[in-house]
Design goal:
The protein is mainly alpha-helical. The protein has nine helices and four strands, in the order ααβααβαβααβαα. It is elongated.
């Protein structure tokens, strides 16, 4: 899956200096955004209701929740309104969660003692998953932030993506940065990083769990 070239996780940032020369990103019309609004969100680091990580009191954004409901429909038991708990890993992987099968199974067993879950229960599990990832991903993000700052230089994107479970492609990173209007010397807050992941995935990026 993903791009034909092998994943390259070299932490050097020389390729990011060529953002302006990157190939034109492959984006569907439905993915078009108002660049001024996006730029303001990145600057202010506003919460975005990301499927990957949620703050304690945060909820999924409407488009993310809709994607999860649609994913549930694909994974539910035939002629049933429920899905098997053992299929939660496949559901999470389909949505781009980079956690391992063993980790998702352990969290699912803690979440419910029943073998089947309905739509609302599955969404509640995904919310719990995202809130746990918020904590662990924030720790990794802070490791890439210069002392005295709250923002991460985009040169550290690949390093952070590897740390949270992705197999980053340099070309796809360049295309995503260009689409978002970010220069090679830009920086991102934590929520800006989550927005980046959303656009990155649309540019054919996949978590390592999907490539296993």
């Amino acid at each position: 899956e993903g791009e034909a070239e092998a994943p390259d996780v070299d932490s050097s940032d020389d390729d990011l200096s060529e953002v302006a020369d990157a190939a034109e990103p492959k984006v569907h019309e439905a993915d078009a955004v108002d660049k001024k609004i996006l730029a303001r969100q990145l600057r202010d680091d506003l919460p975005c209701g990301s499927r990957w990580a949620l703050a304690r009191e945060e909820s999924f954004a409407d488009p993310e929740a809709a994607a999860m409901h649609a994913a549930f429909e694909r994974h539910k038991i035939l002629k049933s309104s429920e899905m098997f708990k053992d299929d939660l890993f496949e559901l999470a992987r389909y949505l781009g969660c980079p956690l391992s099968r063993e980790r998702v199974k352990a969290l699912a067993d803690d979440f419910s003692r029943y073998n089947e879950l309905d739509d609302d229960e599955a969404l509640s599990f995904l919310s719990q998953l995202a809130k746990q990832q918020f904590t662990s991903w924030r720790v990794e993000f802070d490791k890439c932030v210069p002392r005295g700052s709250r923002r991460m230089p985009v040169a550290h994107l690949r390093e952070l993506m590897v740390a949270v479970g992705f197999q980053p492609q340099r070309r796809t990173i360049r295309e995503t940065l260009e689409f978002m209007g970010l220069a090679s010397d830009a920086d991102l807050g934590f929520n800006g990083f989550l927005r980046f992941l959303g656009f990155y995935r649309r540019h054919e990026g996949f978590p390592s769990a999907e490539l296993a």
